[in-house]
Amino acid sequence: MSILFAATYPERTAALVVRSCSPRTLWAPDFPWGRSEQAYQRETDQALQVFAPRAGAREAVRALGMRTEDEVEAYIDFVRYGASPGMLEKLYRMNKEIDIRPVLPTVRVPTLVIHGSEDQVVPVQAAAYTAQRIRSARFIELPGVGHLSLGAGTDRIGTEIERFLTDVWETGGWEDAEPDRILATILFTDIVESTAKAIELGDRRWRGLLERHHMLVRRELLRFRGREIDTAGDGFLASFDGPARAIRCACAIVESVHDLGLSIRAGLHTGECEVTDGKIAGIAVHTGARVAALAAADEVLVSSTVRDLVAGSGIRFDEKGAHELKGIPGQWRLFAVQQRPRDIGN
């Protein structure tokens, strides 16, 4: 969440410090430090044993990779005081789906990635991977420090953070500046078969229908805190600071314009955008437009980046396979949102 915040609100972020972190949980061909599905399920089952009688809880926590008895006892208390078994299970399920790797290059604030060499929970390679992909991040590996910060490890971590923040302050990194690039979720909407509809209705009735369409779209943008960027003919371009709200807004728009006898297609992508005079531009905007162009009538289509960033939100998707997006390098996996607003709430 801190990485997402720093990328989305650089003007509100003085510096970023992340510790014992991994941008992804599960194994992937390009991320060999993740767990397999089976290993992660075993880890989840093991973690839930923290609520067993104390002796059994200690054994389970040792198996999770806590390296000292102090860490074992602290972890047991931390989890028992802060969660229920159901909450912990949902947390593990949510963490399994998270993948913020596409966000890392969009972070442009001073960043420190700090990791203990004895961390048995998150491999140090995952932290190094994170630091390599955040622009100008500083990476520090602390020898002898485990996943939790206890005893002398706490002081050493604090010392490194203080040194980093002092350096940022002295080099002017805390001065207010208007960001020229931000992380944003881009929404494109477009009326399906608008030309045929306009011919059927005639200019005057079509213009009145468009006005009602625009009113409904703007109502939903206001409701879900979206920002209208541009309106061209029968389409809208809007931006959001959160992908889940952008999805819900798109679903709400699809639902609301049905009352007008209209169908729309909607496409969403999250990426780094250039900011100029309040407008946004860049590859992320073009990608969002290409995704929208592939959507079917009444469909909200999203890129895999958007899907990954809403893990744990309860929003479900149907996979639509890999596609080439005109003018955008590579293959893109696309997903169609299953739910409508009445199913997923506000």
Description:
The chain has 2 domains: 169 residues, Rossmann fold; 164 residues, 2-Layer Sandwich (Alpha-Beta Plaits). The protein is of the alpha/beta class. 43% of the residues lie in helices and 22% in strands.
Detail the topology: elements first, then pairings.
Layout (H helix, E strand, L loop, with lengths): L1 H7 L7 E4 L17 H12 L5 H10 L5 H14 L2 H13 L13 E6 L7 H10 L4 E5 L9 H19 L10 E11 L2 H8 L1 H21 L3 E6 L2 E6 L2 H15 L6 E13 L2 E3 L1 H11 L6 E4 H6 L7 E9 L2 E10 L3 H4 L2
Helix pairs in contact: 2-5, 3-4, 8-9, 9-10
Keyword list:
11 strands; Rossmann fold; Alpha-Beta Plaits; 346 residues; alpha/beta; 2 domains; 43% helix; disordered C terminus
Basic shape: elongated
Structural class: alpha/beta
Helix count? Answer: 13
- How do the helices and strands follow one another from N- to C-terminus? HEHHHHEHEHEHHEEHEEHEHEEH
Strand content: 15-25%
CATH class of the largest domain: Alpha Beta
Cα distance spanning the termini: 20 Å
How many β-strand runs?
11
Radius of gyration: 23 Å
Q: Please give the CATH architecture of the largest domain.
A: 3-Layer(aba) Sandwich
What is the arithmetic mean of pLDDT? 90
Percent of residues in helices comes to 40-55%
CATH superfamily of the largest domain: Alpha/Beta hydrolase fold, catalytic domain
Largest sheet: 8 strands, mixed
Low-confidence stretches: 341-346
Number of domains: 2
Q: Tell me the CATH topology of the largest domain.
A: Rossmann fold
